[in-house]
Write a structure and sequence with these properties.
Elements: H1 8-18, H2 30-34, H3 46-54, H4 57-60, H5 65-68, H6 74-77, H7 85-100, H8 104-111, H9 116-134, H10 146-149, H11 152-184, H12 197-207, H13 209-212, H14 218-246, H15 257-282, H16 284-287, H17 292-317, H18 322-338, H19 347-360
The structure holds iron/sulfur cluster (SF4) (2 copies).
């Protein structure tokens, strides 16, 4: 006998986050029919909408199909009852970050607006502690020299250690996610999966091929690619900058190729973010409701990139606010990189894991 375990609080939360009247869904299946990413066998998102209407949290969290959706909004455009299936699926993903966060409080910390001050205060206190212990907590006189105020060796090692701890904790949650996907969508004997699912997924991510499958949101593909590759380039530049501080070749000259690459990366991110923000503000009929986590992600990446650019200009221009800007930039780095597994940016980890699982069981 099938046992149904509705979770009414979960249903309410999905409804609140997505702005959807879940009970209005008449299960017509239009959404599944128009979705270009849904597999022919057991397509989405109609079945997910039925589960959401019943509050079946156990079926939705850990459901691989929720992560195959790339939130193009096609299904919402064609829904005759305006139930916004794209936003409901996005809300399930948002719930997943909190559900799999280890420890749980880190998920709440970065996903609940009430906890934002605490989420900011933590990196502020850690940076102040490092400066105090290193004995550099006094703004130096003369031309701007960041290393005289910010002990790079201490900061690099502390930030790296905390990042490692957070990501190890996240891998524990991702292990649970993998087990849930296996339980809910077990491999079927008659289907052949990819022999190298990780390579296949890497190709899909680099080409953003899943985005091009969605009809009404082509600009999203361009925007996502700009931010994705800009971010990747910025990480490479940051790794080189850390190496330069260790080998005493820091600060980098303006003509240094890595410095130029960093500026190109910032430009790519700004352009991509600009398209994303414009679409969220002026293309709501397709894009749907943007919640706290969407804006937190866009804002934190924008502030990280902007503060990084200003830090550079402040050094060349010897601005009096240079050290304050650098402090702000470090807090932004913490917010984007260290909190990554627990924010919406965690989709980098969760979606990749889900795609690898889907390809390994032959779900296309
Ligand atoms: S969400 Fe809309 S399109 Fe999908 S089954 Fe329900 S009513 Fe139909
Ligand atoms: S948002 Fe796009 S990819 Fe996601 S379920 Fe709807 S149509 Fe499919």
């Amino acid at each position: 006998m099938l046992e149904v375990k509705p979770d009414i609080d979960f249903k309410r939360e999905l409804s609140r986050m997505s702005g959807s009247q879940l009970n209005q869904c008449m299960q017509c299946g239009n959404c599944s029919a128009v979705c270009s990413l849904a597999p022919a066998e057991r397509p989405f998102p109609r079945k997910e909408m039925v589960w959401a209407g019943w509050g079946l949290k156990e079926k939705l969290i850990g459901n691989v199909d929720v992560w195959l959706c790339h939130q193009c909004g096609d299904c919402s455009s064609y829904c005759p009852r305006d139930v916004k299936p794209a936003d409901v699926i996005a809300a399930v993903r948002q719930q997943s970050y909190m559900h799999y966060a280890r420890p749980r409080f880190l998920g709440k910390l970065v996903n609940k607006p009430a906890w934002l001050p605490v989420a900011i205060l933590i990196p502020v206190l850690v940076i102040i502690s490092i400066l105090s212990v290193a004995g550099t907590f006094k703004i130096p006189e003369g031309p701007v020299d960041y290393s005289a105020f910010f002990p790079h060796a201490w900061l690099n090692s502390t930030f790296s250690a905390i990042t490692l701890i957070f990501y190890l904790l996240a891998s524990w949650g991702i292990g649970s996610f993998w087990n849930d996907m296996k339980r809910q969508t077990p491999p079927s004997g008659d289907k052949k999966g990819s022999r190298r699912p990780a390579f296949q997924v890497l190709g899909e991510i680099l080409s953003h091929s899943n985005f091009s499958g969605c009809g009404s949101q082509r600009p999203r593909q361009v925007a996502h690619m700009l931010v994705f590759f800009g971010f990747g380039l910025l990480i490479l530049v940051t790794i080189y900058a850390i190496w330069a501080t260790i080998t005493h070749n820091y600060p980098l000259k303006f003509s240094n190729p890595f410095k130029i690459a960093g500026n190109v990366a910032s430009l790519m991110i700004f352009t991509g973010l600009g398209i994303m923000i414009f679409q969220r503000l002026f293309n709501r009929s397709i894009f749907g409701k943007s919640g706290y986590s969407d804006w937190l992600l866009l804002t934190s990446i924008a502030l990280l990139t902007l503060s990084g650019t200003l830090v550079e200009l402040a050094r060349f221009g010897n601005w009096s606010s240079a050290y304050h800007l650098y402090f702000f930039h470090l807090v932004a780095v913490w917010f984007v990189i260290m909190y990554l597994p627990f924010t919406k940016l965690g989709h980098v980890l969760y979606r990749t894991t889900a795609l690898v699982y889907a390809r390994s069981i032959g779900r296309k």
